[in-house]
Design goal:
Blueprint: H1 2-21, H2 26-58, H3 64-96, H4 99-116, H5 125-148, H6 150-153, H7 159-186, H8 196-213, H9 216-221, H10 239-252, H11 258-287, H12 292-320, H13 322-342, H14 346-372, H15 380-393, H16 397-409, H17 412-418, H18 420-430, H19 435-447
Helix pairs in contact: 2-5, 2-7, 2-8, 3-5, 3-10, 3-15, 4-5, 4-8, 5-15, 7-8, 7-12, 7-14, 11-14, 11-15, 11-16, 11-18, 12-13, 12-14, 13-14, 13-17, 13-18, 16-17
C-alpha cells in the first residue's frame, strides 16, 4: 500500500500543478507549445538580431537613414498585406473546416522564409526585406488559426489560464533561443563560427528549426474543430466566394456582434499604447544615451519576468475576473509611461523593463481570452482575423503621437507621457463592453450553425 501511495503521489502533484497553470490536458499543452515555437521568430528575427544585422550588414552599403527607412517600409508593407488577407483567410478556414491545414501552411511559409535569411549577406537588403516580409505573413497568418483553436479546446472556466499559459511558454521559448543566439553572436568562435555576422545568419536558421520542431505537438494532439456551414451556404461552393460572403454577412450583422466589435475598438486603443512602448523602448533608451548591453539585457529581462507573471495573471483572472485583470495591467502601463518620463540612468531602464515584464503577457493573453469568449466558434478563424488586423494596425497612431509630441516639445520624454491617453481611453471603452451580451450573441450564432456530418 505504501508503495502504491509513493508511486501515485508525484503524478497527482504534477496533475495539480498542470491544472493550476492551465495545462491539464494534452491538447491544451500542445496548443500552448505553439506559442513556444513561433515566439522565436518575433524575438530573434523581429526584435533583436535581424534589425541590427539588416542595418549593419544587409543594408551596410546604404546610409543609416536609408537602412532605417527601408526597414520601416518593409514592416509597413507586411502590415498592409496582413490587414487585407487575415479576415478573408480566416473565413475560408472556417468554411472549409481547415483551421489546422491553414495553420500548417502559414507556419511552413514562415519557417522557410526564416531559413532563407541564412543566405542574406552584405548588400542583400532587398532579399532580407523580401524574406522578412514573407516570414511576417507566415507568422501572423499562423497565429490567426492557432488562436482560433482556443475556444474549441478550452472550456469557459479554463480559457484565461490556457491563454496566459500560451503567452508564458512563448516568453520562455523565445527567451531561451534568444539567449542562445545572443551568446552565439557574442562568442562566435565558441560555436565554431567565423564571426558575429555568420553567427547571426545561423541564428535565423535556428529559428526555422525551433519553430518547425516545436510546432509538431499542435498538429498531433489538437483535433480539427468540426466544420460548420450555414444554411444559406452550399457545401461545394468556391471557398473564396464563401469567405467574402461570410465577411459581408458579418458586417451586415454587426449589431448582433456589437459588444465584440466594441471590445475590438477598446483593444485597438490600449494595445496601440502597449505596442508603442515595445517598439520604441530601444530607440528611446538610445536617445537617453544608454548602452547596447543595457538595451538588449532589458529585452531579455522582459522575456523571463514575463513567464511567471503570465501564469499569475491567468490565476488572478479566475479570482477577480478577466476584465479587472486587464484593468490592472493597463494601470501598471500607465505608471510605466509616467516612470518612463523620469528615466535617466541604466538602472531606471532595467526597472522599467521589469515593470513591463510584469504585465505585458497578462494584458495580451487576457485580451485574447476575453475576445475568444465572445465570438461564435463556427467563425472563430474569421473573427481572429479581425483580431489580428486590430493588433497589427495598433502601433500606427502611438508612434506617430510619440514622435509628434517629441518634436513639438524637443524631447521624447513628453512623447512617452502622451501614451497614457491610449491606456485611459481603452479602459473607458472596455468598461462599456457588455460581456454577457457578447457571449449570448456568440452562443446564438453557434446554435444556428450545426456541425456538418462527417
Amino acid at each position: 500500500m505504501e508503495t502504491t501511495t509513493v508511486a501515485t503521489a508525484p503524478p497527482g502533484r504534477a496533475a495539480r500543478l498542470l491544472a493550476a497553470l492551465g495545462l491539464q490536458r494534452k491538447e491544451l499543452r500542445s496548443w500552448a507549445m505553439y506559442d513556444w515555437a513561433n515566439s522565436a521568430f518575433i524575438t530573434t528575427i523581429g526584435a533583436a538580431v535581424l534589425p541590427i544585422y539588416y542595418s549593419r550588414v544587409a543594408a551596410g552599403d546604404l546610409s543609416p537613414v536609408q537602412a532605417t527607412a527601408y526597414w520601416g517600409y518593409t514592416n509597413s508593407i507586411a502590415l498592409a498585406v496582413i490587414a487585407v488577407m487575415a479576415p478573408v483567410l480566416g473565413a475560408m478556414g472556417d468554411y472549409l473546416g481547415a483551421k489546422k491545414r491553414f495553420l500548417a501552411a502559414f507556419m511552413l511559409v514562415g519557417v522557410i522564409a526564416s531559413a532563407g535569411l541564412y543566405l542574406v549577406q552584405r548588400g542583400d537588403w532587398l532579399l532580407a526585406s523580401s524574406l522578412y516580409l514573407v516570414g511576417s505573413i507566415g507568422f501572423t497568418g499562423s497565429l490567426v488559426f492557432a488562436d482560433s483553436l482556443l475556444p474549441h479546446i478550452a472550456r469557459a472556466h479554463e480559457i484565461d489560464r490556457v491563454s496566459t499559459a500560451g503567452y508564458a511558454l512563448g516568453y520562455l521559448g523565445g527567451g531561451v533561443l534568444l539567449a542562445i543566439n545572443a551568446l552565439m553572436i557574442a562568442k562566435p568562435t565558441l560555436f565554431g563560427f567565423a564571426d558575429a555576422a555568420v553567427a547571426s545568419r545561423a541564428s535565423f536558421l535556428s529559428v526555422a528549426v525551433w519553430w518547425l520542431v516545436f510546432s509538431i505537438p499542435v498538429f498531433r494532439n489538437v483535433p480539427e474543430p468540426p466544420r460548420r456551414v450555414e444554411a444559406r451556404e452550399a457545401l461545394g461552393a468556391n471557398p473564396v466566394t464563401a469567405a467574402f460572403g461570410r465577411l459581408r454577412e458579418t458586417f451586415g450583422e454587426i449589431r448582433q456582434y456589437r459588444e465584440t466589435f466594441k471590445f475590438l475598438l477598446a483593444f485597438w486603443l490600449y494595445i496601440d499604447g502597449i505596442h508603442t512602448i515595445q517598439r520604441l523602448a530601444v530607440i528611446y533608451g538610445t536617445e537617453l544615451g544608454l548602452g547596447q548591453g543595457t538595451l538588449i539585457g532589458a529585452l531579455l529581462l522582459v522575456q523571463f519576468v514575463g513567464i511567471p507573471f503570465s501564469f499569475l495573471f491567468g490565476a488572478l483572472a479566475s479570482r477577480i475576473g478577466t476584465r479587472r485583470g486587464i484593468y490592472l495591467a493597463l494601470w501598471v502601463y500607465t505608471l510605466i509611461a509616467i516612470f518612463g518620463y523620469f528615466v535617466s540612468e541604466a538602472w531606471h531602464f532595467w526597472a522599467l523593463a521589469f515593470m513591463v515584464g510584469l504585465v505585458q503577457g497578462g494584458a495580451q493573453a487576457l485580451s485574447r481570452s476575453f475576445y475568444a469568449a465572445m465570438i461564435p466558434r463556427a467563425r472563430s478563424s474569421e473573427f481572429f482575423g479581425f483580431f489580428s488586423v486590430s493588433e497589427r494596425f495598433a502601433g500606427i497612431m502611438g508612434p506617430a503621437l510619440f514622435g509628434l509630441v517629441g518634436m513639438l516639445t524637443g524631447t521624447s520624454r513628453f512623447g512617452i507621457l502622451a501614451l497614457i491617453a491610449f491606456f485611459i481611453s481603452g479602459m473607458l471603452l472596455l468598461g462599456r463592453v457588455d460581456e454577457a451580451e457578447g457571449r449570448r450573441a456568440a452562443a446564438a450564432a453557434d446554435a444556428a450553425t450545426p456541425p456538418v456530418p462527417s
